[in-house]
Amino acid sequence: MTFSDSGVTGHLDDHDEDEFLNQGRPIRNYKVFPGRNIFFCGGRIMTSRDFPAFLIAIMLLLIPTGLFHGFTSPYLWHRLSPAAPIVQAYLFIVTFSSMLKTSWTDPGVIPRGIDGDPPLDPPRELDIDSASFYPPSGLPRLKEVQVGIYTVRLKYCDTCKIYRPPRCSHCRQCDNCVEDEDHHCIWLNNCIGRRNYRYFLIFVSTAAVYAFLTAALCLTHLLLLYHDRQRMSYGPGQVSFTNDAMAKAPVSALVMVYATVMGLAVGSLASYHFWLATMNRTTHEQLSASMMRPHVVDNPFDRGSVVSNCAAVLCRPPTRSYIRRRDYAMA
């Protein structure tokens, strides 16, 4: 099996990996990556395997945009102002590029095998009266770290062979431990973690603004048609908004309804995540806190104010990828 650095690949099986390493040929890390990810462009792009949902999400963005610029934009360009379709197109570029950036960025995968031989707790004594036929064995001992004034326990991941850092979770879809994992998004075909959460916030916020702006411009198109028809009529009551505006521009009416619904949905999602940012909390942590009520545990990552929490989430410096996809594997 032959690969090129510009090719597309997931991970190799044991036979292919041994074949490369035994021949002494250099092989890049992404070609032997053990997770359920797919790499493009020589390992520069990293994403997951939920392509159907991701393609649907792209179509939900591209199709109404094409309809708008095919039917509504030319009228607004000449009748209202060229600035209207230009601003709409600019927001589309920001939305689409942040969508791809979120989908194609390493979310913060933690390398495997860092703690391959963890200390074990003493095994329990065998209870002959127990219904279990398996002998007791020692489990990996929990570790504790200090986060401010709080003590946080680190759980051991048997799949990745590491003690998961604070706020790290194992994603079942990608089969990776991800730093500060918020959730796995099938629509973006990637985990949302420390390294791409900011791009995710940019995407959902600009997508909501883009949808509402598109709906407003489509409504403007219909209102202008209605007023033009009113000026041409010879008496009151002879012009109907439905028959003379919406029937004349049905595509604008359809895109307006669609953009309004999508704007409300994505806007609600954006509001929820900005609310989480004010507390410096991930979706996993919020769900855990909700299930533990009324025994709610204090958030050890709270910076004490809304401004400090938002700054910690939105303004923290980006980190380099830990898995170094394009470096060469050790033989």
Quick structural summary:
This protein has 331 residues and is mainly α.
How do the helices and strands line up, and which of them pair or pack?
Layout: H1 14-22, E1 38-40, E2 45-47, H2 51-79, H3 83-103, E3 143-147, E4 150-154, E5 156-157, E6 162-163, E7 169-171, E8 176-178, E9 183-185, E10 190-192, H4 197-232, H5 241-246, H6 250-279, H7 283-292, H8 306-314
Antiparallel strand pairs: 1-2, 3-4, 5-6, 7-8, 9-10
Account of the 3D structure:
The protein is 45% helix and 10% strand. The protein is mostly helical and 331 residues long. The strands form five sheets. The chain has a two-stranded antiparallel ribbon with strand order 1-2. It has a two-stranded antiparallel sheet with strand order 3-4. Strands 5-6 form a two-stranded antiparallel sheet. Residues 1-8 have low confidence and may be disordered.
Adjacency order of strands in the biggest sheet: 1-2
Percent in helix: 40-55%
- Element-by-element helix/strand order: HEEHHEEEEEEEEHHHHH
Mean pLDDT: 85
Largest sheet report: 2 strands, antiparallel
What structural class results from the helix and strand content? mainly alpha
Net shape = elongated
